[in-house]
Amino acid sequence: MAQRRERLTGAASVPARIGMDALLVADLSEPTRRCVGQFLFALHHFDRFNEYLLYAPRGGSHAIGANCDLPHWRIVETKLPTQWAWLRRLAHQSAFLAIASRDRLDIVHALTAISPFATQKPSLDAAPPVIVTVWEEPSSDRLTAASLQQAWCIAAASGYLARTVQERFEVPEEKVRVMPVGIDPLFIADPFAESAGKRAVVWGQVPAWVREGLQKVQVAWQGLPKEVTGQAAKNALSEAGIVIVTESDGRGSQGLCAAAMGKWVVAVPLAPLQEVLNDAALWLNESKPESVILALERIWDDAAWRERTRRQMHRLTQQRQWTQAVKAWVGLYRRVFEEAIAEFVGW
User: Fold this and answer.
1) pLDDT tens digit string along 296-344?
2) Which InterPro entries match (predicted)?
3) Residue 242 contacts residue 261 (beta carbons within 8 Å)
4) How would you list the strands of the sheet with 17-21, edge to edge?
5) Domains of the chain
6) What is 234-301 written as a DSSP string?
7) CA 290 centroid distance within chain
8) How far, in Å, CA of 85 to CA of 191, rounded?
């Protein structure tokens, strides 16, 4: 305790020791685990000032699906059970307070919405401030609610997720920060598509009106589930010129990945997609076959729209690089660290 007090009160210009809590990442969906892995990899290469300790199940980063080497970080492998998520969470909660004290962590960044201290209410003397991450829509269970209420800061991967957290869990707006995420590098293609192909992929469920619209214009198409492995999605998109997105995760990943590959995106106006794509897509504002037909005809016939949209997609891809995104995350760590210092010494 005394050691932590001494470090905090004199730490304004020293590196922060940040514990990256990845023990529950295995509970996330496969696309989100890919996102977490890309975040860790980019952060590892960008920030050599702060000190990072990654807490992962036995097997290190590969055990959480990150599949990236982090030689500049200290990897702390645990013996948590791999089966039964409830048992893994229970063991996680009971052990982490002692771990944080042992390793003298200044900040804990939980890479899921579940804080390692969600079942406890430790003081700042006993535990460091916790940042919890909302990569996808959080479950409405008591543990998640306790975690979000208790966290020092909630980092939401999109404005849509931030609003969801505030409304569903009654979290104060000032506690939630919208943090940028990068596009999956697997999907970044250069150059963009140069022609409007007539083969389509429908990413998500295929409503009858979408199916009917595609049949009327005689477009060859295939369906792609909302949650699919990265390579399978890329393989399907590579064969198409047009991607119709009918479902999306909370980050708008489906639309971003399609746009990054230079595919013409037609989408149902879901909030996460509208937030990230804006003018880089055509929107199906009516659930009718005619709206699909009109969108496809505009892609084929409107050369000015294609050129304008190609520039939008290129700009979007450049702005959504992971290297740029992690700069904001490092800034968040510093702000939380300085806020913790100020509260600890009573400034």
Assistant:
1) 999 999 999 999 999 999 999 999 999 999 999 999 999 999 988 877 6
2) Glyco_trans_4-like_N
3) no
4) 74-78, 51-57, 17-21, 107-110, 130-134, 153-156, 176-178
5) 2-182+322-345 (3.40.50.2000), 185-319 (3.40.50.2000)
6) HHHHHT-SEEEE----TT-HHHHHHHHTT-EEEE---HHHHHHHGGGSEE--SSSHHHHHHHHHHHHH
7) 34
8) 43
